[in-house]
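YsnF/AvaK domain-containing protein structure dump, as promised
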Amino acid sequence: MTDSHDPTQPVSVQSDTRELVGRLELRAERATLDKVRAEAGTVVVRRELRQRQEVLTVELMSEVLVIETKSGGPDVYLDGVLLPAGEPRELLLYTEMAEVTKVPHVVEEVKVYKEWRAVQRSVPVQLGYETLVVDEQLLPGAVDPTTP
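structure tokens r here:
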């Protein structure tokens, strides 16, 4: 027996030999992805005052009055006490003292930024889908059409 049908030609089906008896919808799951923002950590930024010891060196001046008498001259009294001849005495007139003043000034500027970064992540998901399964069951006493 030869098949005379050309596989490139459409097969005509008579519309009166079929009757629609039902319709089934086959469904498949689709994945949706929602991004949830979760706090991963916190940062506290603060300035702390640290102390260090430094030694500042400065030259301070003082002014003194030097009194010296020579022997054979007039008597000189200092604070009611006779000044011996040839022995110099010093009286402090003024003195410089070191006064430290601390003034804060900027030594460094630190910039703090917040930045968004996009990172690609792959999230595996297993999706279910429906398929049409036809189980043929013969009724008792029915003839099997596949048997010759």
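DSSP finds no helices and four strands in the chain.
lmk if u need the other ones
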